[in-house]
């Protein structure tokens, strides 16, 4: 039992210099913080991120969400036992009373939910990942195979009609720390190649720390990544993943990448060719958020061998996951805590995905903070894969570094799935 003594929210800045919410929770056993991330290519089925819509910060202020924590949520949560995660989350859902957290804002509910979890973990003398494991009913010991976004495109790089993320996965490593080193060495090799080829312009970076060189197409970017892996000496150990974020280049039944236009079927064929030509083992958001038939076709065509990950399609929502299971639309779920807005609902989404033996990828947002909770979450649920951006900038490296600490703490108990990353 650990009573919440006070809750205080404030407006802070995220990695893009935009406002977000931080909660400071005082409990009997100490002070705990949680911060909210924010997406740029957000799905339309996500829980509501409450923005003020007033002049300050170009409409992006979060003072309404802050007020909702300080004046509405605090009344309901102060005095409760932070160790009762489900009850805390349900109390906030009841208070909100909408389907999408439209009254309070997911950015008000989520940090309270996470701060309670951190307080409860400390009260039990557990590390955060261990306590998440207790909530999830698993023996938390699996370090994720990271997907590192080393080349940014699309909305994260000011580009239109473009694939968003080109990622490295160090599947040939024997543990997480070695995998991180392989990925970093490949990232640095890529930087050298880009500098030589394009000069200083080639190594500018996007929202998630990946490079944004003047290379317009996916094939060109994957070739440069392959060259970097070769030059780093990790050609056999590193494979690739893409997040197309295709909702961003879909309109009226047509997908546009660069100057090419595709129907869903043609796009699925294009991806089939990509996975045949490059070591691409995972494709996220290959189809748009409501193009269920396109998703089915894609999974039929490449889902046997390739991981087909739903992000904007599923929005960490157990109900949408159930629908995707019925329709055989994907074989993997991306998990983002602020898409659904509470710890308990995030865990429900993971359980739902797991029922169908899907893989699970725990993910950051393009707008991040120094809060490393998702590193604890991915190990806590034995998630197996993470997506935290490039190994650059401390908003991303806060998570990678937290995983190094967790692997060290687990010692001989730590597991790394490597080539069996899909579980
Ligand atoms: P977002 O991008 O945080 O801007 O939505 C990340 C993703 O699409 O996975
Ligand atoms: Zn995505």
What is the molecular shape?
globular
What ligands are attached or bound here?
Answer: 2-phosphoglycolic acid, zinc ion
- Calculate the mean pLDDT score and round it: 98
Which oligomerization state do the chains in this entry correspond to? single chain
Q: How many β-strand stretches? A: 16
Number of helices: 13
Q: Order of helices and strands, N to C?
A: EEEHHHHEEEHHEEEEHEHEHEHHEHEHE
Radius of gyration: 21 Å
CATH class of the largest domain: Alpha Beta
Low-confidence runs: none
CA-CA gap between termini: 35 Å
Helix content: 25-40%
Hey, roughly how much beta strand do the residues contain? Answer: 15-25%
CATH fold call of the largest domain = TIM Barrel
Name the strands of the widest sheet in spatial order: 5-6-7-11-12-13-14-15
**For this structure, what is the CATH homologous superfamily of the largest domain?**
Enolase-like C-terminal domain
Count the domains. Answer: 2
Q: Identify the CATH architecture of the largest domain.
A: Alpha-Beta Barrel
Structural class: alpha/beta
Largest sheet: 8 strands, mixed, barrel
Defining key terms:
423 residues, alpha/beta, Enolase-like, domain 1, TIM Barrel, 2 domains, eight-stranded mixed barrel, three-stranded antiparallel beta sheet, 13 helices, 16 strands, 19% strand, binds 2-phosphoglycolic acid, binds zinc ion
